[in-house]
Amino acid sequence: MKELLEQGIIGDLKLIRTSQNSFARRYDWQTLLYREGGAMRNNLAHSIEQIMDLASNDELPKIHSKLAIWNSVGDAEDYVHISIEYANGLLCELECNPADAYNDSPLFYLYSTRGTTKVFPTRILVKYYLDGESPISVLDHKSLHSGDGKPAYCSYSIVWHEEEITLHADTMLQYIQQHYAEHISLTDLSQELNISCTHLNAKFKGETGYTFHDFLNYYRICKAVELQKQRNYKLYEIAELVGFSDYKYFNKVYKRYVGYAPNKIFPTKK
User: Fold this and answer.
1) Separation CA 140–CA 55 (nearest Å)
2) Average confidence (pLDDT) over 217-235
3) Three-state SS annotation for 66-135
4) Residue 160 has pLDDT above 50, yes or no
5) Is 197 within 8 Å of 168 (Cβ atoms)?
6) Residue 202 CA to chain centroid, in angstroms?
7) Where in the sequence of the chain do the CATH 1.10.10.60 domains occur?
8) What percent of the chain has pLDDT over 90?
9) Which one of 1, 25, 111, 117 has the lowest number of neighbouring Cβ atoms within 10 Å?
């Protein structure tokens, strides 16, 4: 998305809107505050990072947020709405809604001065016009009238251009970032995208150098190291928090990527 914005074909970015909606009634550890649960930490954190990257603005924006419990049984929020406003006029809206039974919205909407971009899990749709082909009308201070003298509305002709960009590796990376703490597999993503596991894995490895499974484990271990640095959790708790149900397997994977067993890096926590 950022590369598309940097090309400038859709003009100045004015509004970014993203949502992670579904119909959910969760009852697991991610609904509990003491387990670092909640939609803000586990659903929208990466979307916030993506929006800040797209905004390309180091200033501190105005932020308004609404957190609530709608459908889950724990004490952590499952509904979040965030509004972000930068001094240059850029607006950003993020939502995680557990009461969306349709769930057919794009992952991102980008509204710009010369067009709109819609980002779906497997593709990006872009609709825009070029300045030279669709010039802006000259301001008219008089009331507009049609040829028969009746009031008229503004009329203009726009030559639209539309493009579709297919996504594979980016979608899979985002899926891992958002769901690494859950019991996920390439089969889950294959079913969601309606693309074969073989094709997805080949595309992912061709673009990243990792298989889906290898990168998932690598990402989980990176998150495990981050939690270890906090020194707030025992190792078996960290294993569960990053998606490992088998503590012995967690140890094996940890040592493969870090080079040491987890209790050798931060030995004060057992």
Assistant:
1) 34
2) 90
3) EEECCCCCCCCCCEEEEEEECCCCCEEEEEECCECCCCCCCCEEEEECCEEEEECCCEEEEEECCCCCCC
4) yes
5) no
6) 23
7) 169-260
8) 41
9) 25
Distance, CA of 220 to CA of 204 (rounded, Å) = 17
Phi-psi region at 87: left, alpha or beta (left = phi > 0; alpha = psi -120 to 50): alpha
pLDDT band, residue 13 (cuts 50/70/90): very high
pLDDT tops 90 at residue 153: no
Fold adopted by 169-260: Arc Repressor Mutant, subunit A (1.10.10)
Mean pLDDT, the chain, rounded, equals: 87
Q: What value does the mean pLDDT take over residues 83-112? A: 92
CATH topology of domain 2-133+161-166: Dihydrodipicolinate Reductase; domain 2 (3.30.360)
Q: Are 54 and 5 in contact (CB under 8 A)?
A: yes
Q: What is the pLDDT of residue 49?
A: 80
Number of Cα atoms under 13 Å in the Cβ half of residue 178: 20
